[in-house]
Structures are given as C-alpha cells and as structure tokens.
Amino acid sequence: NNAFYTEVALKAQHTSNDLDNLKGFIKTVLKCGSWTLDYRRQLAHVKKQLESRDSLSSGDWSKILESANAKGFPRNSTFVGCKGSQPTYRGYSCSLWLLFHTMLSTCYQANPPPQDVLKTIHGYINSYFTCSYCREHFLQMAEDMNLLGIRQPEQAILGLWEAHNKVNKRLSSDPHDPYFPKVQYPPVGQCGDCQSSDGTFNRSHVLSFLLQHYRRVRTPFGNIRYVSPVPQPPDTQHLVHLANRAERYQSSVLYSDALVYGVVCLGCVSLLVVLLLVLCKRKLRTFYVGGFIHRIS
After folding, report:
1. How far is CA 7 from the centre of its chain?
2. End-to-end CA distance of the chain
3. How many CA atoms lie within 13 A of 295 on its CB side?
C-alpha cells in the first residue's frame, strides 16, 4: 500500500504508458497474492475505478484512494518482516523486493505466468519507482540480463533472484543495516543445498527454495507468511561477541535451572519427611490408646 499512497501519488500526470503499467501492476498484485477476502475486495475496487480511465492525474488518483479508503482500504502499513534495526534501514525497498519475489512464486504454474509478472514489475519500476538512481540501475541491469526476453517461468523466478543478488553485491560496500548485511541469498544457514563450498549456487535447489520460501510469506493483508532472515553478523569480531554472549546466557540459564531444580527437590523431600512424621505420630498414638484401653477392660 505504500506504493499506492506514496510513489504513485507523487506523479503529477500519468502518461498512457504509465497508466497501462499501473493497471497491469494492480491486476497482477490482485492475482498473484493469497490475500484476505476483504483486501481482495478493496484492491478490486481500486482496479475497477482505474480500468475505465484513459488518463490519470494526481487528483484523480487521490479520489480513487479516498473511495477505496472509505471501503476499508488501509492507508498506512508497517514493515514487519522488513523492519530494520533503525528507522532509516530497510523498510520500503525491502518490502518491494519481497512483494516482487512473492508475486513470481505465487503465480508459478498459474496465470499470469512469472515471465509476464516480471514484465509487469519492470513496467512499475520504470514508471513509478521514485528513487531515480535505483530505477536507472534496475532498468540497465534488466537490459543487460535480458529479463524481458525470458520465456520460461522458472527462468523468470531465477532471473529476479539473480538480479537481486547483483544489487546486494553492488550495495554491500555502502552503508546499510549491520544486522542485515547485503549477502548473496540464500545463505547456507537457510539453504544448505543451494551453495557449494566455493560459493557457487545450484540453480535447481535455489528454485525449489524460492518457491517454498516465498509462498509462505504473510502480510497483514493475506495468508503469505514471511519470517525475516536471521541477521548474519557483519564481521568475525561480532560473531565472537555473539558467541560469548550466547555462552554466558546458556551458562546462566543452566545454573538457574539447576538452582530451581535443587530447591524444588529439597522442598519435596522436606514435605515427604513431614508427612511421614505425621503419619507415624498418628499410628503411635492409636496404638498407645488402644493398648491402654485393652488393659483396663
């Protein structure tokens, strides 16, 4: 929704090509996502309001969003799986990549096929991605990789994955979230079969991983579940620091567990001894009184 309320809304006048790209993008998002029924209806309302138009201004788009918002179309959304360690990190760009990968995986062996979804993604980036530097890099990379010439659905999914890794490699030296470094995805910790010892990816295993991973993604608007990748330490020193903290924590937990276990055992033994003493005392009293009465009679 941030794309609709921010990027699309910032465009003062949409060309016919922009409008076609926006229509195609909304149509594909609607089809290539396992959204909730409410969100699907809200997004379908936006699609219906847009599809009959042959021109679009910023004012027209604002009215469409206001109409959709009156029907419950959410205005604000938070970045859950893409939340960075600081507000300036990750967020929108991460969620956009996540949406793109999810769309491709969801529409695998479906309609529209991933290769058409990839063209829709390209169109949206070309018309609406507000980071001009990022947009130009993506479009040039798409041309160099011939992403629009892909004909096989598997290659479309792998094509965007490869493009994303190229971006991560290019940005790895730039300032970024130290808890979410720009690594080649998926790391060995998430897919042990995806990489060989020399770092070469097995594309067949990567494809299986991507389909399984991104089909589980979940957003506030649908039943796709996303667990953000476990942060990889930015350097070896940080790894040692985390290991030492984990070891100290584990030791303290073990000591606490042992202490609690000892106190519980001691309490149980004490309670058992008290019960035995009470029972023995009652038996002795009964025996004594019974014997005394027997001697008098």
Report:
1. 22
2. 97
3. 5
Sorted by sequence, the CB contacts under 8 Å of residue 86 that are 6+ apart come out as 177
Q: Which residues contact 238 (CB under 8 A, 6 or more apart)?
A: 178
Is residue 271 a contact partner of residue 264, using CB atoms and an 8 Å limit? no
Distance (Å, whole) CA 287 – CA 207: 82
Residue position matching structure tokens 């959304």 = 77
E-strand spans in the chain?
A: 13-14, 56-57
H, E, C per residue of 63-78: HHHHHHHHCCCCCCCC
Please state, in angstroms and as integers, the Cα–Cα distance from residue 90 to each residue in 79, 95, 97, 108, 227, following that order.
Answer: 9, 8, 11, 27, 15
Summarised one tens digit per residue, pLDDT across range 6-58 is: 899 999 889 999 999 999 999 999 999 878 888 889 999 999 999 989 999 99
CB neighbour list of residue 174: distance below 8 Å, 6 or more residues apart: none
Alpha-carbon gap, residue 183 to 140, rounded angstroms = 22
Q: What is the dihedral of CA 146, 147, 152, 154, to 10 degrees?
A: 130
| 211 has pLDDT over 80 | yes
Tokens representing 239? 């790894």
Structure tokens at 176: 């970024």
Answer whether 178's CB lies under 8 Å from 163's CB.
no
Task: State phi, psi for 198 to the nearest 5 degrees.
Answer: -90, 5
The token pair that represents 162 in the structure block: 């490869």
